[in-house]
Design a protein that fits this description.
Blueprint: H1 3-26, H2 28-46, E1 53-56, H3 63-72, E2 77-82, H4 85-98, E3 103-107, E4 120-126, H5 135-145, E5 146-157, H6 164-175, H7 196-205, E6 211-222, H8 225-235, H9 237-244, H10 248-262, E7 266-267, E8 270-282
Parallel strand pairs: 1-2, 1-4, 2-3, 4-5
Antiparallel strand pairs: 5-8, 6-8, 7-8
S-adenosylmethionine binds near residues 13 and 111.
Length: about 280
């Protein structure tokens, strides 16, 4: 892909991150509730030790790394990075709130990691590589900064049709012509790395030798249709921005679709939507 297209894709992702950072911060607890099985998997497979230096890429509000900071202890360090200043500032606020002292916050593009070769013991990246314009470059950079014995753990979303939280609203917005259908990989997007074979190949091409992928399942518990729409508008990337921008008259049709589709997931206290992440450990 040419550099201009890659730059355009990166700019779109950057602007979405900047626009959504305030509501991502407000929704931190909800995001963590859904992501806890993934965070636990990533930390277990990374198995950091006291005194380790870890790097978190595309950290968002940084929650995965803060848990790792507790494990590496005061002789260790977590370098929390994101290319969005608004996300990184939100991470800094959260880190201060938690009182984690062994974290260094750095604005950084994961495709051009500003660290020396062989300088970190482990890398974490949750729901990040799939949004990068050039994930191959980011993975090669990850391998470069890892010490030879170092390990990467990552998570991306599984296929769209297995993640109804996104699919329900996404399909309705596409059907009503409010957003284009998702572009197939390699275009970046939440589902662009959902294929385990492709993910494993990308990791091997970047120089990783030991590679293992595993699906991790979770669930979104949503009390009402309104709360579903509000969670989407606060967190769900380009879908969030499209939903926020709908005219009142267009919104009613989308709400009807959502209500119909959610019925399939009715639970005692509202709705329960399954979700699937594809996780990988590589060294
Ligand atoms: C879906 S959020 C995930 C945030 C966090 N890792 C989590 O799991 O809660 C994706 C994050 O990737 C960041 N991001 C996307 N492309 C990036 C890049 N090339 N370099 C650094 N950060 C990037 C965005 O700014 C955003 O904060």
């Amino acid at each position: 892909m040419d550099t201009q297209t890659l730059d355009q894709q990166k700019r779109v992702i950057y602007e979405i991150a900047e626009a959504l950072a305030p509501t991502w911060e407000q929704r931190r607890a909800d995001v963590e509730e859904v992501s806890t099985p993934v965070r636990d998997w990533m930390l277990r497979e990374l198995a950091p030790q006291g005194g380790d230096t870890l790097l978190e890429l595309a950290a968002g509000i940084g929650e995965t790394g803060f848990e790792a900071a507790r494990i590496v202890g005061e002789t260790g360090l977590v370098i929390t990075t994101d290319f969005s200043p608004a996300m990184l500032e939100a991470a800094r606020r959260r880190g201060n709130e938690l009182g984690v002292a062994n974290v260094d916050y750095r604005l950084m593009d994961a495709e051009r990691i500003e660290l020396d070769d062989d300088s970190v013991d482990g890398v974490l990246c949750r729901f990040g590589y799939m949004l990068m314009a050039d994930p191959a470059a980011a993975l090669a950079e990850t391998r470069r900064v890892l010490r030879p014995s170092g390990r990467l753990t990552l998570a991306v979303w599984g296929a769209l049709e297995r993640n109804p939280f996104f699919a329900i609203i996404g399909i309705s917005l596409v059907q009503h012509g409010h957003i284009p259908p998702p572009e197939p990989p390699p275009a970046p997007g939440p589902f662009s790395m959902a294929n385990a074979e492709r993910l494993e190949q990308l990791l091997r091409d970047a120089g990783f030798v030991e590679v293992r992928t595993e699906e991790v399942h979770g669930r979104f518990a949503i009390p009402t249709v309104d709360e579903y729409l509000s969670a989407i508008a606060d967190t769900a990337g380009p879908i969030a921005l499209a939903l926020r921008g709908l005219a009142e008259s267009d919104r009613a049709a989308v709400e009807n679709d959502v209500e119909d589709s959610l019925r399939r997931f009715a639970a005692v206290d509202g709705y329960e939507l399954p979700c699937v992440a594809l996780c990988a450990v590589a060294s």
